[in-house]
Amino acid sequence: MSVLNREGSNTSRTFILFSGFNTRAVLTLCRIFTKHKITFFIIALDQNDPINLTAYSSHVQWIREKRQLDLDEFIEAIEHIRKRCEVDKVTIVPSTEALNRFILDHRGFLKDKNISVPLVSKDLYELISNKYSFGELCAEKGMAIPNEIDLLARSESNYPIVAKPRSYSTTNAISPVIINHQSEMLEFQRLNNMDDFYFQEYVNGESYYLLYSIDKNGRVVSFSQKNYIQQGNGKSIVLAVSADIHNESIGEKYKQLFLELGYFGIVMVEIKRAADNDYMIEANPRFWGPLQLTMDCNVPIVELWLKMCGCELQEESKASPPYVDGEYLWLSGLLKSIKNNDVMYHVNPEVIQHLPDYLLSDVYLRKDSLNYFYDEIKGDK
Length: 381
Description:
31% of the residues lie in helices and 22% in strands. The protein is α/β, with parallel strands linked by helices. Strand 9 (206-214) and strand 10 (220-231) form a beta hairpin.
Protein backbone atom coordinates (compact mmCIF):
# COMPACT_ATOMS: atom_id res chain seq x y z
CA MET A 1 0.00 0.00 0.00
CA SER A 2 1.25 3.50 -0.86
CA VAL A 3 -0.41 6.43 0.88
CA LEU A 4 0.10 10.19 0.91
CA ASN A 5 -0.85 12.22 3.96
CA ARG A 6 -3.33 15.05 3.74
CA GLU A 7 -5.60 16.86 6.16
CA GLY A 8 -9.09 15.41 6.28
CA SER A 9 -12.15 17.13 4.86
CA ASN A 10 -15.58 17.13 6.52
CA THR A 11 -17.99 16.27 3.72
CA SER A 12 -20.53 13.56 2.98
CA ARG A 13 -19.83 13.34 -0.78
CA THR A 14 -16.71 13.11 -2.85
CA PHE A 15 -15.62 12.31 -6.39
CA ILE A 16 -12.74 9.95 -7.06
CA LEU A 17 -10.53 10.62 -10.07
CA PHE A 18 -8.16 7.99 -11.41
CA SER A 19 -5.22 9.77 -13.01
CA GLY A 20 -2.33 8.57 -15.14
CA PHE A 21 -4.40 8.10 -18.28
CA ASN A 22 -6.44 10.63 -20.28
CA THR A 23 -4.45 13.25 -18.37
CA ARG A 24 -5.79 16.28 -20.23
CA ALA A 25 -9.39 15.41 -19.39
CA VAL A 26 -8.48 14.60 -15.78
CA LEU A 27 -6.77 17.98 -15.43
CA THR A 28 -9.82 19.80 -16.81
CA LEU A 29 -12.07 17.93 -14.38
CA CYS A 30 -9.81 19.02 -11.51
CA ARG A 31 -10.19 22.61 -12.68
CA ILE A 32 -13.98 22.37 -12.89
CA PHE A 33 -14.32 20.63 -9.52
CA THR A 34 -12.13 23.33 -7.98
CA LYS A 35 -14.10 26.13 -9.63
CA HIS A 36 -17.33 24.82 -8.11
CA LYS A 37 -15.74 23.94 -4.75
CA ILE A 38 -16.60 20.26 -5.16
CA THR A 39 -14.69 17.78 -3.03
CA PHE A 40 -12.54 15.37 -5.00
CA PHE A 41 -9.60 13.10 -4.41
CA ILE A 42 -7.20 11.44 -6.78
CA ILE A 43 -5.88 7.90 -7.07
CA ALA A 44 -2.59 8.30 -8.96
CA LEU A 45 -1.12 5.69 -11.27
CA ASP A 46 2.44 5.90 -9.88
CA GLN A 47 5.07 8.33 -8.60
CA ASN A 48 5.59 9.63 -12.16
CA ASP A 49 1.90 10.40 -12.71
CA PRO A 50 1.67 13.82 -14.44
CA ILE A 51 -0.88 14.97 -11.84
CA ASN A 52 2.01 15.18 -9.35
CA LEU A 53 3.43 18.11 -11.33
CA THR A 54 0.22 20.14 -11.12
CA ALA A 55 -1.50 22.21 -8.46
CA TYR A 56 -3.77 19.23 -7.79
CA SER A 57 -1.06 16.97 -6.38
CA SER A 58 -2.40 17.79 -2.90
CA HIS A 59 -5.59 15.90 -3.83
CA VAL A 60 -3.69 12.65 -4.37
CA GLN A 61 -4.67 10.26 -1.60
CA TRP A 62 -3.41 6.99 -3.01
CA ILE A 63 -0.67 5.85 -5.38
CA ARG A 64 -1.41 2.54 -7.06
CA GLU A 65 0.83 -0.44 -6.64
CA LYS A 66 -0.49 -2.12 -9.78
CA ARG A 67 -0.82 -0.63 -13.24
CA GLN A 68 -3.67 -3.01 -14.03
CA LEU A 69 -6.88 -2.21 -12.19
CA ASP A 70 -7.27 -4.62 -9.29
CA LEU A 71 -10.51 -4.93 -7.30
CA ASP A 72 -8.83 -5.52 -3.96
CA GLU A 73 -6.59 -2.48 -4.28
CA PHE A 74 -9.49 -0.47 -5.72
CA ILE A 75 -11.59 -1.09 -2.60
CA GLU A 76 -8.62 -0.60 -0.27
CA ALA A 77 -7.91 2.80 -1.82
CA ILE A 78 -11.55 3.91 -1.59
CA GLU A 79 -11.86 2.81 2.03
CA HIS A 80 -8.63 4.60 2.89
CA ILE A 81 -10.01 7.82 1.40
CA ARG A 82 -13.29 7.38 3.25
CA LYS A 83 -11.58 6.97 6.58
CA ARG A 84 -8.83 9.52 6.10
CA CYS A 85 -11.02 12.25 4.64
CA GLU A 86 -14.27 11.50 6.46
CA VAL A 87 -16.43 10.98 3.41
CA ASP A 88 -19.37 8.68 2.87
CA LYS A 89 -20.84 8.94 -0.63
CA VAL A 90 -18.22 8.14 -3.23
CA THR A 91 -18.67 8.62 -6.99
CA ILE A 92 -16.16 7.27 -9.50
CA VAL A 93 -15.50 9.70 -12.36
CA PRO A 94 -15.70 7.81 -15.71
CA SER A 95 -12.46 9.13 -17.18
CA THR A 96 -11.08 6.22 -19.23
CA GLU A 97 -12.40 3.29 -21.20
CA ALA A 98 -10.54 0.72 -19.11
CA LEU A 99 -11.82 2.23 -15.86
CA ASN A 100 -15.40 2.38 -17.13
CA ARG A 101 -15.37 -1.25 -18.24
CA PHE A 102 -13.86 -2.25 -14.91
CA ILE A 103 -16.44 -0.51 -12.75
CA LEU A 104 -19.29 -1.80 -14.94
CA ASP A 105 -18.00 -5.34 -14.50
CA HIS A 106 -18.06 -4.90 -10.71
CA ARG A 107 -21.06 -2.57 -10.45
CA GLY A 108 -23.12 -4.73 -8.09
CA PHE A 109 -20.23 -5.29 -5.72
CA LEU A 110 -19.36 -1.57 -5.74
CA LYS A 111 -22.98 -0.63 -5.05
CA ASP A 112 -22.90 -2.83 -1.96
CA LYS A 113 -19.84 -0.85 -0.87
CA ASN A 114 -21.74 2.45 -1.34
CA ILE A 115 -19.62 3.37 -4.36
CA SER A 116 -21.60 5.13 -7.09
CA VAL A 117 -21.01 4.28 -10.75
CA PRO A 118 -22.66 7.05 -12.85
CA LEU A 119 -22.89 5.01 -16.04
CA VAL A 120 -25.67 3.38 -18.05
CA SER A 121 -26.05 -0.40 -18.14
CA LYS A 122 -23.12 -2.44 -19.35
CA ASP A 123 -25.06 -3.56 -22.45
CA LEU A 124 -25.91 -0.01 -23.50
CA TYR A 125 -22.42 1.26 -22.72
CA GLU A 126 -20.82 -1.43 -24.86
CA LEU A 127 -23.33 -0.94 -27.67
CA ILE A 128 -22.12 2.66 -27.98
CA SER A 129 -18.46 2.14 -27.15
CA ASN A 130 -17.79 -0.83 -29.41
CA LYS A 131 -17.10 0.62 -32.82
CA TYR A 132 -18.77 -2.09 -34.87
CA SER A 133 -22.03 -2.29 -32.91
CA PHE A 134 -22.50 1.47 -32.80
CA GLY A 135 -21.76 1.74 -36.50
CA GLU A 136 -24.39 -0.93 -37.22
CA LEU A 137 -26.90 0.95 -35.06
CA CYS A 138 -26.20 4.25 -36.82
CA ALA A 139 -26.62 2.61 -40.22
CA GLU A 140 -29.98 1.15 -39.11
CA LYS A 141 -31.08 4.66 -38.06
CA GLY A 142 -30.12 6.17 -41.40
CA MET A 143 -26.87 7.84 -40.33
CA ALA A 144 -23.98 7.52 -42.75
CA ILE A 145 -21.00 5.36 -41.83
CA PRO A 146 -17.91 4.66 -43.97
CA ASN A 147 -18.29 1.82 -46.45
CA GLU A 148 -17.00 -1.50 -45.22
CA ILE A 149 -14.14 -2.94 -47.28
CA ASP A 150 -14.12 -6.51 -48.59
CA LEU A 151 -10.46 -7.44 -48.30
CA LEU A 152 -10.83 -10.22 -50.86
CA ALA A 153 -11.91 -7.68 -53.47
CA ARG A 154 -9.46 -4.95 -52.56
CA SER A 155 -6.83 -3.51 -54.87
CA GLU A 156 -4.08 -0.96 -54.37
CA SER A 157 -6.54 1.75 -55.42
CA ASN A 158 -8.72 0.96 -52.38
CA TYR A 159 -6.16 2.46 -50.01
CA PRO A 160 -6.07 4.08 -47.56
CA ILE A 161 -8.40 1.96 -45.48
CA VAL A 162 -8.98 1.84 -41.71
CA ALA A 163 -8.71 -1.31 -39.61
CA LYS A 164 -10.98 -1.09 -36.57
CA PRO A 165 -11.31 -3.51 -33.65
CA ARG A 166 -14.72 -5.18 -33.56
CA SER A 167 -14.89 -4.82 -29.79
CA TYR A 168 -12.85 -3.51 -26.88
CA SER A 169 -10.39 -5.84 -25.17
CA THR A 170 -9.55 -5.26 -21.51
CA THR A 171 -6.37 -7.30 -21.86
CA ASN A 172 -5.12 -5.85 -25.15
CA ALA A 173 -6.69 -2.51 -26.04
CA ILE A 174 -6.32 -1.94 -29.79
CA SER A 175 -6.65 1.39 -31.57
CA PRO A 176 -7.79 1.84 -35.18
CA VAL A 177 -4.99 1.68 -37.74
CA ILE A 178 -4.86 3.56 -41.03
CA ILE A 179 -3.37 1.34 -43.73
CA ASN A 180 -2.02 3.27 -46.71
CA HIS A 181 -0.83 0.59 -49.13
CA GLN A 182 -0.41 -3.12 -49.69
CA SER A 183 2.92 -3.46 -47.89
CA GLU A 184 1.39 -2.02 -44.72
CA MET A 185 -1.54 -4.42 -45.05
CA LEU A 186 0.82 -7.40 -45.26
CA GLU A 187 2.60 -6.21 -42.12
CA PHE A 188 -0.73 -5.66 -40.37
CA GLN A 189 -1.82 -9.19 -41.25
CA ARG A 190 1.44 -10.57 -39.91
CA LEU A 191 1.05 -8.84 -36.53
CA ASN A 192 -2.66 -9.20 -35.88
CA ASN A 193 -5.53 -11.67 -35.76
CA MET A 194 -7.66 -10.50 -38.67
CA ASP A 195 -10.84 -11.85 -37.07
CA ASP A 196 -10.51 -9.13 -34.42
CA PHE A 197 -10.92 -6.37 -37.01
CA TYR A 198 -13.21 -5.02 -39.67
CA PHE A 199 -12.16 -2.65 -42.44
CA GLN A 200 -13.66 0.60 -43.72
CA GLU A 201 -12.79 3.12 -46.36
CA TYR A 202 -10.90 6.17 -45.13
CA VAL A 203 -13.12 9.24 -45.39
CA ASN A 204 -11.47 12.48 -46.47
CA GLY A 205 -13.09 15.62 -45.14
CA GLU A 206 -13.46 17.96 -42.22
CA SER A 207 -13.22 16.38 -38.78
CA TYR A 208 -15.62 17.24 -35.95
CA TYR A 209 -16.55 16.07 -32.48
CA LEU A 210 -20.20 16.21 -31.48
CA LEU A 211 -20.28 16.48 -27.68
CA TYR A 212 -23.21 15.76 -25.40
CA SER A 213 -24.06 15.70 -21.72
CA ILE A 214 -27.43 14.10 -20.97
CA ASP A 215 -29.02 13.71 -17.57
CA LYS A 216 -31.53 11.09 -16.43
CA ASN A 217 -34.44 13.46 -17.08
CA GLY A 218 -33.46 13.92 -20.72
CA ARG A 219 -31.97 17.40 -20.37
CA VAL A 220 -29.12 17.89 -22.84
CA VAL A 221 -26.15 20.21 -23.20
CA SER A 222 -24.64 20.00 -26.69
CA PHE A 223 -21.42 21.36 -28.14
CA SER A 224 -19.07 20.66 -31.04
CA GLN A 225 -15.50 21.24 -32.07
CA LYS A 226 -13.73 21.30 -35.42
CA ASN A 227 -10.48 19.37 -35.39
CA TYR A 228 -7.56 20.94 -37.23
CA ILE A 229 -4.63 18.64 -36.38
CA GLN A 230 -4.53 15.14 -34.91
CA GLN A 231 -1.82 12.70 -34.00
CA GLY A 232 -1.27 9.92 -36.52
CA ASN A 233 -3.64 6.96 -36.87
CA GLY A 234 -6.51 8.98 -35.47
CA LYS A 235 -5.02 9.33 -31.99
CA SER A 236 -5.25 12.47 -29.83
CA ILE A 237 -6.51 15.80 -31.13
CA VAL A 238 -3.78 18.43 -30.76
CA LEU A 239 -5.43 21.51 -32.30
CA ALA A 240 -9.16 22.28 -32.51
CA VAL A 241 -11.60 25.17 -32.40
CA SER A 242 -15.20 25.53 -31.27
CA ALA A 243 -17.81 24.73 -33.91
CA ASP A 244 -21.56 24.95 -34.42
CA ILE A 245 -22.57 21.68 -36.08
CA HIS A 246 -24.34 20.55 -32.90
CA ASN A 247 -26.99 23.14 -33.85
CA GLU A 248 -27.35 21.63 -37.33
CA SER A 249 -29.54 18.66 -38.25
CA ILE A 250 -26.65 16.23 -37.76
CA GLY A 251 -26.31 17.34 -34.15
CA GLU A 252 -30.03 16.95 -33.56
CA LYS A 253 -30.06 13.45 -35.09
CA TYR A 254 -27.43 12.12 -32.71
CA LYS A 255 -28.99 13.86 -29.74
CA GLN A 256 -32.31 12.20 -30.50
CA LEU A 257 -30.59 8.83 -30.99
CA PHE A 258 -29.08 8.94 -27.51
CA LEU A 259 -32.38 10.05 -25.99
CA GLU A 260 -34.19 7.17 -27.72
CA LEU A 261 -31.62 4.75 -26.34
CA GLY A 262 -32.23 6.07 -22.83
CA TYR A 263 -28.60 7.07 -22.58
CA PHE A 264 -27.41 9.37 -19.81
CA GLY A 265 -23.96 10.73 -19.06
CA ILE A 266 -21.40 12.23 -21.38
CA VAL A 267 -20.58 11.07 -24.90
CA MET A 268 -18.53 12.19 -27.89
CA VAL A 269 -19.29 11.28 -31.52
CA GLU A 270 -16.55 11.74 -34.12
CA ILE A 271 -17.85 12.93 -37.48
CA LYS A 272 -16.11 13.26 -40.85
CA ARG A 273 -17.81 15.80 -43.12
CA ALA A 274 -17.23 14.81 -46.74
CA ALA A 275 -18.70 16.42 -49.85
CA ASP A 276 -21.61 13.98 -49.93
CA ASN A 277 -22.43 13.29 -46.28
CA ASP A 278 -21.52 13.41 -42.59
CA TYR A 279 -19.97 10.07 -41.65
CA MET A 280 -19.93 8.65 -38.13
CA ILE A 281 -16.43 7.43 -37.28
CA GLU A 282 -16.79 6.35 -33.63
CA ALA A 283 -18.37 7.26 -30.30
CA ASN A 284 -16.79 7.44 -26.85
CA PRO A 285 -19.15 7.41 -23.82
CA ARG A 286 -16.57 8.97 -21.51
CA PHE A 287 -14.76 12.27 -20.98
CA TRP A 288 -12.60 13.14 -23.99
CA GLY A 289 -9.09 14.62 -24.14
CA PRO A 290 -9.92 18.15 -25.39
CA LEU A 291 -12.51 18.62 -22.61
CA GLN A 292 -10.80 21.91 -21.69
CA LEU A 293 -12.38 23.55 -24.73
CA THR A 294 -15.85 23.20 -23.17
CA MET A 295 -14.66 24.95 -20.01
CA ASP A 296 -12.97 27.75 -21.95
CA CYS A 297 -16.13 28.26 -24.02
CA ASN A 298 -18.43 28.34 -20.93
CA VAL A 299 -20.28 25.21 -22.06
CA PRO A 300 -21.71 23.45 -18.97
CA ILE A 301 -21.21 19.89 -20.18
CA VAL A 302 -19.48 18.79 -16.99
CA GLU A 303 -21.82 20.91 -14.86
CA LEU A 304 -24.91 19.07 -16.11
CA TRP A 305 -23.16 15.78 -15.36
CA LEU A 306 -22.35 17.00 -11.84
CA LYS A 307 -25.95 17.99 -11.23
CA MET A 308 -27.06 14.55 -12.42
CA CYS A 309 -24.70 13.09 -9.82
CA GLY A 310 -26.47 15.10 -7.12
CA CYS A 311 -24.26 18.18 -6.82
CA GLU A 312 -25.69 21.58 -6.00
CA LEU A 313 -23.38 23.98 -7.77
CA GLN A 314 -22.60 27.14 -5.84
CA GLU A 315 -22.78 29.33 -8.93
CA GLU A 316 -26.27 28.19 -9.91
CA SER A 317 -27.87 31.34 -8.50
CA LYS A 318 -25.84 33.49 -10.86
CA ALA A 319 -26.71 34.04 -14.50
CA SER A 320 -24.92 31.51 -16.69
CA PRO A 321 -22.14 33.11 -18.76
CA PRO A 322 -22.77 33.08 -22.50
CA TYR A 323 -21.02 30.58 -24.74
CA VAL A 324 -17.91 32.01 -26.37
CA ASP A 325 -15.73 30.81 -29.23
CA GLY A 326 -12.47 29.19 -28.27
CA GLU A 327 -9.43 27.21 -29.33
CA TYR A 328 -7.71 24.13 -27.97
CA LEU A 329 -4.04 23.27 -28.28
CA TRP A 330 -1.88 20.47 -26.92
CA LEU A 331 1.52 21.75 -28.01
CA SER A 332 3.60 18.91 -26.60
CA GLY A 333 1.42 16.32 -28.32
CA LEU A 334 1.79 18.19 -31.59
CA LEU A 335 5.57 18.50 -31.26
CA LYS A 336 5.86 14.80 -30.50
CA SER A 337 3.88 13.95 -33.63
CA ILE A 338 5.95 16.28 -35.78
CA LYS A 339 9.12 14.72 -34.38
CA ASN A 340 7.82 11.26 -35.30
CA ASN A 341 6.56 12.46 -38.70
CA ASP A 342 3.12 11.24 -37.68
CA VAL A 343 0.66 14.11 -38.08
CA MET A 344 -2.85 14.19 -39.53
CA TYR A 345 -4.07 17.53 -40.90
CA HIS A 346 -7.84 17.86 -41.27
CA VAL A 347 -7.49 21.37 -42.74
CA ASN A 348 -4.85 23.06 -44.86
CA PRO A 349 -1.43 22.10 -43.39
CA GLU A 350 -0.49 25.77 -43.54
CA VAL A 351 -2.44 26.13 -40.29
CA ILE A 352 0.83 25.18 -38.58
CA GLN A 353 2.20 28.60 -39.57
CA HIS A 354 -0.39 30.20 -37.31
CA LEU A 355 0.52 28.09 -34.29
CA PRO A 356 1.63 31.14 -32.22
CA ASP A 357 -1.95 32.42 -32.43
CA TYR A 358 -3.13 29.36 -30.49
CA LEU A 359 -0.33 29.09 -27.95
CA LEU A 360 -2.21 30.72 -25.07
CA SER A 361 -4.95 28.10 -25.47
CA ASP A 362 -2.59 25.24 -24.62
CA VAL A 363 -4.21 22.88 -22.13
CA TYR A 364 -1.07 22.77 -19.94
CA LEU A 365 0.30 26.31 -20.38
CA ARG A 366 -1.65 27.54 -17.37
CA LYS A 367 -0.78 28.51 -13.84
CA ASP A 368 -1.94 25.25 -12.27
CA SER A 369 0.01 23.01 -14.66
CA LEU A 370 3.09 25.00 -15.75
CA ASN A 371 5.51 22.51 -14.22
CA TYR A 372 4.01 19.71 -16.28
CA PHE A 373 3.98 21.89 -19.41
CA TYR A 374 7.73 22.48 -19.05
CA ASP A 375 8.33 18.81 -18.25
CA GLU A 376 6.50 17.68 -21.40
CA ILE A 377 8.23 20.23 -23.61
CA LYS A 378 11.65 19.16 -22.31
CA GLY A 379 10.73 15.54 -22.96
CA ASP A 380 9.89 16.33 -26.59
CA LYS A 381 13.24 17.89 -27.45
